[in-house]
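Hi there,

I know you've been waiting on this one. I reran it after we fixed the sequence typo, so this is the corrected version. Both the input and the resulting structure follow.
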Amino acid sequence: MSDPADVPGEHIPLDTAELTDYDRAHFKHYIMMLDGDAAGASWQEIMRIVFQVDPDADPARCKRRFDAHLSRARWMTRKGYKQLLDEHR
């Protein structure tokens, strides 16, 4: 059974082709994650800094959150940003 804290749209981003309210609310986190990843920071360090969580408390759950957010951050750089720009035209 999955952790109720891992419900998409609550603590992890939705995997959808559309920009979501969750994406808008976490845009800053996405940028910080991309920066940390590009700098070679470990996923644990990124989660400590960006989400202020202790990855050692529940490593599997924290890694799932990291993977989901980084994947969505990368999606934003390929597709999501276009939708964000269109909203402000």
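Quick highlight: The CA atoms of residues 81 and 87 lie 10 Å apart.

Best,
R. S.
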